[in-house]
Write a structure and sequence with these properties.
The chain has 17 helices and ten strands. With about 350 residues, it is an alpha+beta fold. A hairpin with a 2-residue loop joins strand 8 and strand 9. The longest helix has 20 residues. The radius of gyration is 30 Å and the shape is elongated.
Length: about 350
């Protein structure tokens, strides 16, 4: 059943699953309505062989200026919704549409658990995208069942992160990941997955598996099949993804993955022009770590016997005399200690006696 967003307002049994022919018909009728308020309207392609559907998931972008702000409330009116769960901004709003008697008659008898006189509804979800780039990402990554999860798993097996936000390289904490690209076309090109082949569509699940395996990053040895007791709920419910993992174990790795210089992160940084940014962040990170371990308040206090105010004064003086703390990086620890003690002497600071400490 669909209608999960309205379980508190409408009977759950009033949202029957839609047979394929009715689903396609309703999608075809609703698309032109949304196209009156959005320039880009689409539904991510369904998995091949799917016989029925719980709801219709639209992806939209680029509101059309009509003299009225394109709000979730306006979308509800355009769709003729009787109930709605509206979320502003670039999020997903949910709409309940009452099915006409004619459409309700097309629901197989076994799909209804309410009396035939009961009203039936359809849940329509509308995800408003920030721009055309996000629209394209969602159309690809949410299309053809679990294909987006498969592509993401292949990227992740090489240390890359692909999500509906784009492609990223994780950085060591606490640094944020480095954003590589939000263009799904550019990402697929990097992974050597043909956009033209994706546009042709897939008639069988095995074709989807084969398409994912054409990526130059495909390596079944990196894709592990979790034991059933280790599955998270989300993974265990993804039967197509699980079947893909099983299928991969009989396949050969891409030629790229067999090479000694297979380093997808390094290749991605070069491909997307991010190597300089990555190296600069690494330098800052390494400098911060070195200073944390070799020039910190605890060490200075141990060397000088000073309290926190004196420690700060000495550290500021050492930084100034060295031309910045970055100039200290890489020097032997004994040199740092000597600089600290020389600063203490020149500043004529006295260490704390045992009596003062107590």
């Amino acid at each position: 059943m669909g209608g999960k967003a309205f379980s508190q307002e409408l009977p759950s049994g009033s949202f029957p699953r839609l047979p394929q022919h009715l689903y396609q018909d309703l999608k075809g009728r609703l698309t032109p309505l949304l196209a009156t308020v959005f320039s880009l309207v689409g539904v991510p392609p369904e998995a091949p062989g799917k016989k029925d559907h719980g709801d219709i998931d639209f992806v939209v972008a680029q509101p059309i200026p009509t003299g009225e702000d394109v709000t979730p409330e306006l979308v509800a009116r355009v769709l003729g919704a009787v109930k709605s769960v509206e979320l502003d901004g670039n999020r997903t709003s949910h709409y309940a549409l009452e099915l006409s008697q004619e459409d309700a008659m097309r629901i197989p008898p076994g799909s209804q658990i309410l009396p035939s006189s009961q009203k039936l509804y359809l849940q329509v979800d509308v995800r408003v995208c920030l721009d055309a780039e996000e629209f394209e990402r969602l159309m690809v990554l949410h299309g053809y069942g679990d294909l987006g999860i498969m592509i993401g798993a292949i990227a992740r097996s090489h240390g890359l992160v692909l999500s509906t936000k784009g492609l990223k390289v994780p950085s060591p904490p606490p640094d944020a990941p480095l954003y590589l690209s939000g263009s799904i076309h550019a990402v697929l090109d990097f992974m050597d997955l043909s956009v033209d082949r994706w546009k042709e569509g897939f008639d069988r699940v095995e074709q989807i598996f084969a398409f994912a395996s054409t990526s130059r990053l495909f390596d079944p040895h990196r894709l592990r099949i979790p034991q059933m007791h280790t599955f998270t709920k989300s993974v265990s419910e993804r039967t197509m993804y699980h079947d893909f993992l099983v299928w991969t174990q009989g396949q050969q790795p891409a030629v790229y993955c067999l090479g000694a210089e297979c380093d997808a992160i390094a290749d991605a940084l070069l491909h997307f022009g991010k190597k300089d940014e990555w190296d600069a962040a690494a330098l800052v990170r390494n400098t911060r770590l070195w200073l944390k371990n070799n020039f910190n308040g605890k060490l200075v206090a141990e060397w000088t016997g000073l309290k926190w105010r004196g420690v700060k004064t000495v550290m500021d003086d050492v930084r100034a005399s060295a031309g910045g703390e970055a100039a200290l990086v890489g020097r032997p620890l004994e040199d740092i200690k000597n600089l600290v003690l020389a600063s203490k002497t020149s500043l004529k600071l006295e260490e704390i006696s045992t009596e003062q400490l107590h």
